[in-house]
Amino acid sequence: PLAWGRATRQPPGLPLAPCRAFSNNKILVELDESSGVATMKLKSPPVNSLSLDFLTELCISLEKLENDRACRGVILTSAVPKIFSSGLDITEMCGKSLEHYAEFWRAVQEMWLRVYGSNMVTVAAVNGSSPAGGCLLALSCDYRIMVENPKFSIGLNEAQLGIVAPFWFKDTFTNVVGYRVAERSLQLGSLHPAPEAHKFGLVDELVPEEKLQEKAAAVMAQWLALPDHARQLTKSMMRKAVLDRLVAHREEDIQNFVTFISKESIQKSLRMYMEMLKKKK
Q1: Do the beta carbons of residue 133 and residue 87 sit within 8 Å?
Q2: Does 11 reside within a domain?
Q3: Of 33, 57, 92, 158, which one is the catalytic site residue?
């Protein structure tokens, strides 16, 4: 099969080199060609916030893997202790130009379209807290495993910042947890401790921290045991309506975001939130 091509083309007598790594500033990627599984580690301390640069690198890394015939699945995890991703970088949404807000929001859309619509099997190994955009990133994967630590929480908590989760965040969340849980959780801007998140299916499994990578690899093997085309067509069928809805309304969604985020009242609440974060430090 094609997937093995690269590993076997080495001169005879040399050991096979099944692992290839490529990384940029904020994303580390290792592809194990023997299993066809890549591990993508988010490495943008202190909290893996989704800045414009980070989102761009994430999309480029995903595209590389998507176009690599040796790669069939990707495990997303964090290289930063105690945090998976803190979500959208607030500095990208505060005190910038309208053009900047539009460019930033297009990058957020792109990240979601790529992960949610990926042909690869995507497993989120959530090894820390994952609010807002971090939760969206995990939600967009096929399967979520989280460290069973009640100190780690996950959820779409936008309402707490005076922001509204867009329709495609809401759709992704609702499709995972069901309408009633989503309605309550989104309105309250709830962050759910890992055990609670597991109880209503926001994450699929909880494991001790030291077992996380091993479990992610086992789940990945289970998903990759199926013929790719059958799994991919099923995934596309399940997710197509949600993806198509954003694609059809992409420009309008950007305009809505720009109009909303540039309101003085919203800018003020973001500035207050940033001040609060500075004091916490």
Answers
A1: yes
A2: no
A3: 158
Tell me what pLDDT residue 18 has.
62
pTM of this prediction?
Answer: 0.91
Alpha-carbon distance of 21 to 26, in angstroms, equals 14
Burial of 175 (0-12, 13-18, 19+ CB in 10 A): middle
Per the structure, the complete domain to which residue 134 belongs is given by: 19-221+231-280
d(CA 90, CA 36): 36
Which one of the listed residues 128, 133, 134, 155 is annotated catalytic? 133
Query: Under DSSP, is residue 260 helix (H, G, I), strand (E, B) or coil?
Result: helix
Q: Would you call 95 a catalytic residue per the annotation?
A: no
Residue 267: give its domain's CATH number. Answer: 3.90.226.10
Cα 217 to chain centroid, rounded: 18
- Tens of pLDDT, residue by residue over 62-109, are 999 999 999 999 999 999 999 999 999 999 999 999 999 999 999 999
Active site residue 158: yes
Q: Determine if the peptide bond prior to 46 is cis (ω within 30°).
A: yes
Q: In what order do the strands lie in the sheet with 73-78?
A: 19-23, 27-32, 37-42, 73-78, 121-126, 143-147, 205-207
10 assigned to some structural domain: no
Q: How many domains does the chain have?
A: 1
Residues 101/261, Cβ–Cβ less than 8 Å: yes
Angle at CA of residue 208, ends 172 and 116, nearest 5°: 20
Residue 42, Cβ density class (10 Å: 0-12 exposed, 13-18 middle, ≥19 buried) = buried
Q: Alpha-carbon distance 274 to 124, whole Å?
A: 28
Confirm whether 69 is domain-assigned: yes
Other CB atoms within 10 A of residue 155 CB:
25
The reply to whether 157 belongs to the active site is yes
